[in-house]
Amino acid sequence: MVVGGARFLHWTHMKEREITALEAALNYHFHRRAVVEQALTHSSQAREQESQQAGESKYKVSDNEQLEFLGDAVLSLITSEELFQRLPHFREGELSKLRAHLVSERHLIQVAQQLELGHYLRLGRGEEKSGGRGKTALLVDALEAILAAIYLDGGLDAAREFVLREIVAPELERMALKGGALPVTDFKSALQEALQGLGLPQPSYVLVEEAGPQHRKTFTVEVRLSMKDGKLQGDFVGRAQGSTKKTAEQDAARQLLTYLASRSESAASRAHAEAAEK
Q: Which end of the chain is flanked by fewer CB atoms within 10 Å, N or C?
């Protein structure tokens, strides 16, 4: 295959029994094995394979990054279509929040773990030693790439069947059993609303560290809040890491929301105790 003047190679080292086991887990049979192998090939493995090609620097080994990009789009389309058809009474904002939850890293990692995708990842030695098979970002990327592989191999109907069976339907059923409440997925917006309701100032988000190679950085973000309104005293700092600044900020905001909830519960308990004494 030729892309941008460079020839790309597919490395077919997955054993037949591994592919068969993966197909059983996915409940899908691939007609083109190369596409599923690419979906499971991390960039660390691809670059390692390239470095072993003596005198053939123009050859590039395919990894799963482009498939991840495509899979993300396919997932969003199928999820949006399903919610549109299944929930005609929902407003746009409610549909957007629910879709955000269903395609979120927090939800997709559970699906990837249930499918045991970590077992099938093709990693470079460095990524293997650093525990890459258990990393959330790598597993979610692989799940999206697998979805793209199914789409390319079997078409939109096959991809839709997989998404509904593995990602959308089980979670909607779980939520229905809990009363259909929408989960919080945009913690920054939820935090903003909570602080406004309490009459507290808005927090600041500070990027305190970037680590890792350019293609796989880790961002550390702190959310800082000063509370001196006579009810909640002192400062609070939440710190979180993520594969993007956005995800790190969301997790830090979640920490602050949890903190505020715990303070509110403590205040309510004290008020209840004081009322009981009177």
A: C
Average pLDDT over residues 200-224: 86
For residue 83, the enclosing domain spans 2-177
pLDDT in the model for residue 8 = 36
Q: Which of 37, 68, 141, 144 is catalytic?
A: 144
Q: Write the CB contacts of 213 (distance below 8 Å, at least 6 apart in sequence).
A: none
182 part of a folded domain: no
Question: Which of the listed residues 117, 142, 177 is the one where a domain comes to its end?
Answer: 177
- Select which of 37, 63, 68, 72 is catalytic: 72
Residue 72 is among the residues annotated as catalytic for this protein: yes
Lowest mean pLDDT among 45-59, 64-78, 121-135, 260-274: 260-274
Number of domains in the chain: 2
Shared domain for 153 and 272, answered yes or no, is no
Told to judge if 144 belongs to the known catalytic residues of this protein, a careful annotator would answer: yes
Please give the pLDDT value at position 174.
Answer: 84
